[in-house]
Amino acid sequence: MSKVLIIGAGGVSSVAVHKMAMNASIFTEIHLASRTKSKCDAIAKSVKERTGVDIATYEIDAEEVPALTRLIRQVEPKLVVNLALPYQDLPIMDACLEAGVHYLDTANYEPKDEAKFEYKWQWAYQEKFREKGLMALLGSGFDPGVTSVFAMWLKKHKLSTIRTLDILDCNGGDHGQAFATNFNPEINIREVTAPARHWEKGEWVETPAMQISQSFDFDQVGPKNMYLMYHEELESLSKFVPELERARFWMTFGDEYIKHLTVLQNVGLTGIEPITYQGKEIVPLQFLAAVLPKPETLGETTKGKTNIGDIATGEALDGSGEKTFYIYNICDHEEANAETGNQAVSYTTGVPAMVGAAMMLTGRWSGEGVFNMEQLDPDPFLEMLATNGLPWQVKELPAPLDF
Ligand code: NDP
Question: Do 247 and 297 reside in the same domain of the chain?
Fold first, then answer.
């Protein structure tokens, strides 16, 4: 019997819960709690209609550690899957420690008043989880998540060392809206407007946000402009793949997205410093997020595909010299929506969250302490990912990237 409690009821949670219900032999009991219970109930209704599985739902503010601890003790899950926002990571980890259950998330902790995502806060929980004999798995989404597992799969099966690594995240989908984000708008805009950072020769190189771009021809999507950005897996990859000479993260954005974002930034609507408006304190970015389309409403209208993967260059395992491999997944927005009622960005995050949870519940991934995806065997994870809607492919490229 493996009982699981999921926290958060947005697009990513919706996909993960649907996929857990489709793997009922592993997830024998599914409980879902979030700040707004009606959103949990809507997911439960869709899951019941699509799979026949019943989901128990609860209202919880995950930042209230004593209340969350009580809920975990009441439900008695083996694992808590955190699909709320990065701000809730530490309180949910605290409640898991109190109640004695394992923990998983898809995004690293960010303090609300500082757009800075780093693993240091969660890595500081290492001893606490180890002492209690519990496992915390960090970043089990697509990026972070699968992109790190892809790198480790290449290191296990193709390359003895990785000299350079580029993560390429392309969303070739069109949602038909003038401007919308494909996951939580507040988190998305904080990420995109932060300075770019990449790892080069043992140190971080910082450049202004959205300044360095390249065109790349993505399989089944076509040529797109992609922008150099900072992304959290660069921190864990540079730690767990110490030989990396250079690691970069690129994400595609259309001209319309850039145009809207530039205007919003120029008029101050992406700021995270509170301002006083009609006697009330508001955070401009939170106000903006409230008026933008909700990511979970984009499923019906989004068409096209995502293509996310890693290009790695290094010494071949078979001693044949330096080689370059490209490993990636393509996901179709409309197919994702037909299966779970959510577009591919939620789908490509929710499926790996379910697979990471399955790895922990079945004991194929186990340990005591705080773990990043790079520390665990890539094979069982990628096998299950491929049979649960996210097949991947690997090919050898004739030469390293020329940029
Ligand atoms: P949404 O904003 O759609 O959903 C977030 C959910 O968390 C909402 O249901 C929200 O409740 C709930 N929530 C927020 N605050 C609290 C709280 N204090 N207590 C309880 N519940 C709370 O986000 P997404 O589904 O798009 O993203 C979910 C997570 O996935 C985020 O952390 C995001 O960063 C991460 N992500 C990771 C990716 C990866 O590849 N690794 C890619 C995309 C996203 P309410 O409905 O009341 O607002």
Answer: yes
Regarding whether 117 and 44 lie in a shared domain, the answer is: yes
Shared-domain flag, residues 179 and 36: no
Tokens, residue 28: 């024998």
Q: Is residue 356 part of a domain?
A: no
Same domain, 176 and 320: yes
Residue 383 lies in a domain: no
33 domain-assigned: yes
- Which of 92, 108, 138 lies at the terminal end of a domain, its last residue? 138
Count of residues making up the chain: 403
Q: What are phi and psi of 141, to 5 degrees?
A: -115, -145
pLDDT confidence bin for 240, thresholds 50/70/90: very high
Does residue 163 share a domain with residue 284? yes
* Euclidean distance between CA atoms 190 and 247, whole angstroms: 21
Closest-lying ligand 1 atom to the alpha carbon of residue 146: 40
- What tokens were used for 271? 């700021």
Residue 162 neighbours by CB distance under 10 Å: 24
Q: How many CA atoms lie within 13 Å of 369's alpha carbon, on the beta-carbon side? A: 10
Cα(200) to centroid(ligand 1), Å = 32
Ligand 1 centroid to residue 34 C-alpha, Å: 9
Radius of gyration (C-alpha) of the chain in whole angstroms: 20
The number of folded domains in the chain is 2
Residue with tokens 């997944």: 329
Residue 216 sits in the same domain as residue 270: yes
Distance CA 19, CA 352 (A): 10
pLDDT at 376 over 70: yes
Give the nearest ligand 1 atom to 13 CA. Answer: 25
pTM equals 0.96
What 3-state DSSP class applies to 140? Answer: coil
Strands (E), 148-221: 164-171, 196-200, 203-207, 213-218
- Domain assignment of residue 90, given as a range: 3-138
Judgement on whether residues 307 and 262 belong to the same structural domain of the protein: yes
CA 130 to centroid of chain Cα atoms = 24
Within 6 Å (CB) of ligand 1, which residues are found? 7-13, 34-36, 39, 60-63, 83-86, 88, 106-107, 141-145, 183-184, 187, 295-296, 349
Residue 151 — pLDDT band, cuts 50, 70, 90?
very high
| CB-count exposure of residue 87 (10 Å: 0-12, 13-18, 19+) | middle
**157 and 133 belong to one structural domain:** no
